[in-house]
């Protein structure tokens, strides 16, 4: 790789970082009570496979991030948009995929440890702004889970 190519890539990274800072989009503006309400509604809609309810809870530009650490199944890329996030959640955690849910505090926010019937576990947290979920964070990498499953 030549020096000019590295310089162009660095400039592009800086440009993207500056654009993101200008957006001034906060990750967490909902208080704990609002986060609890959204998490309850989200988990119920996911359990029922209710696409309309899931889509209604999620902001149009929401992003779902998953981390399997190469050890458990996870999406390879972020899932972007309310419709795609809702379909992903309904498919992965809906009525055809029974799960157990253990509510807990994760990173100082309301969250849940979700257990799938195949023996994998995922820590779930949400980011919310103005009553809508803007970020969904699912961590299944066993090395990053908050507590040993069980």
Structure write-up:
- The chain has helices at residues 3-23, 32-48, 51-57, 82-93, and strands at 58-67, 79-80, 99-106, 109-116, 121-129, 132-139.
- It is of the alpha+beta class and 150 residues long.
- A hairpin with a 4-residue loop joins strand 4 (109-116) and strand 5.
- Helix 2 packs antiparallel against helix 3 (51-57), helix 2 packs across helix 4 (82-93) and helix 3 (51-57) packs across helix 4.
- The termini are far apart.
Question: What amount of the residues lies in strands?
Answer: 25-35%
Mean pLDDT: 85
Largest sheet, strands/sense/barrel: 6 strands, mixed
The SS-based structural class is alpha+beta
- Contiguous low-pLDDT stretches (5 residues minimum) are none
Question: H/E element string?
Answer: HHHEEHEEEE
Radius of gyration: 17 Å
Strands in their spatial order, largest beta sheet: 2-1-6-5-4-3
Distance between the termini: 49 Å
Estimate the global geometry from the Cα principal axes.
globular
The number of distinct β-strands equals 6
Percent of residues in helices: 25-40%
Distinct helical segment count: 4
Main features:
single chain, about 150 residues, alpha+beta, six-stranded mixed β-sheet, 4 helices, about 40% helix, globular
Would you summarize the structure shown here?
With 150 residues, the protein is an alpha+beta fold. The chain contains four helices and six strands; from the N terminus they run H-H-H-E-E-H-E-E-E-E.
Q: Any chance you could write out the topology, listing elements then pairs?
A:
Elements: H1 3-23, H2 32-48, H3 51-57, E1 58-67, E2 79-80, H4 82-93, E3 99-106, E4 109-116, E5 121-129, E6 132-139
Parallel strand pairs: 1-6
Antiparallel strand pairs: 1-2, 3-4, 4-5, 5-6
Helix pairs in contact: 2-3, 2-4, 3-4
């Amino acid at each position: 790789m030549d020096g000019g190519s590295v310089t162009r890539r660095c400039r592009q990274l800086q440009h993207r970082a500056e654009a993101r800072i200008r957006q001034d989009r906060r990750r967490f503006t909902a208080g704990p009570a609002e986060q609890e309400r959204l998490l309850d509604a989200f988990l119920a809609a996911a359990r029922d496979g209710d696409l309309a309810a899931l889509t209604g809870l999620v902001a149009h530009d929401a992003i779902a991030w998953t981390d399997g650490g190469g050890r458990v199944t996870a999406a390879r890329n972020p899932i972007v948009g309310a419709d795609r996030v809702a379909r992903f959640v309904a498919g992965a955690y809906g009525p055809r995929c029974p799960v157990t849910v253990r509510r807990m505090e994760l990173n100082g926010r309301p969250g849940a440890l979700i257990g799938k019937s195949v023996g994998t576990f995922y820590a779930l947290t949400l980011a919310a702004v103005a009553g809508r979920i803007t970020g969904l964070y699912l961590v299944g990498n066993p090395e990053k889970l908050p507590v040993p499953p069980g």
